[in-house]
Fold this protein.
Amino acid sequence: GSSHAEAPGFRLENLSMLTLVKGVDAKTTLMEVLIRTIMDGERALSDSNTIGAAAPSLNATQKSTSEASNSPLRAVSAEGFEGTLSQQAVEVLLKRGSLLSFPEDIVLPLLEAGKCPLQGVSTQLTQLQHSLQKMRKIVADNETAQRSGTARGPTDPEARAILSRDSNSGGPPVLLEDALPQIVKSCADKFTQRVSALSLRHQSLKEDLASMIEFYGEDPNNTDEVAMFALLVAFAKNFDEWVAKVQQQDRVAQKEKEKELQKLQAGP
């Protein structure tokens, strides 16, 4: 099931089964049916000049979602298999030229996304926030010591390391000003805003990722996004390989038809 009103569906991990599920002829796979449905739909749109007619309407004022969903562009394959290209599919088709090339859009981005899991980003962000808290505590402690007059003096063992004597005057040792608190304060002020912006982007990323996982019918609370990305990449690569196979099958079939036609034209 899925999150969409408990509509029937399948798990993402079952995408790998598309090449294993076959028709009654024990040859045609579900992956091939999917690819041919897309090809037939695109061919029907192209033959009827639907793409040219659809472009102005897509660029004009958007119609209601319900109206769009109730008006799918339908196509019937040569084998009688009826498929549907939704309005979203047509928009992608207008942009890309073919839905069959979608692996080009997702494989590399998903591979890169898989190298940086959200949990790792969360851990690094938490470490940054803890570091900033320590820096602000150093600044606050120093300011409190300055106000109370308890700042370390020249008798402090650590302070002796920063004592200096004017060699020309031969005067008493002079306590150099400790610049560290001011440096820490400057860094904390500088990076607090950046870390806050990162936190907002991180939260937005979490919400977008959860929404995407839910869109695919999975549970955002129990789904590893890296594993999900790997499943999608594997499916995209498999899909691309099968597109090449189907296109090769069509080329072979076309050559056979041409040979048969030539024989008929040549006569007995």
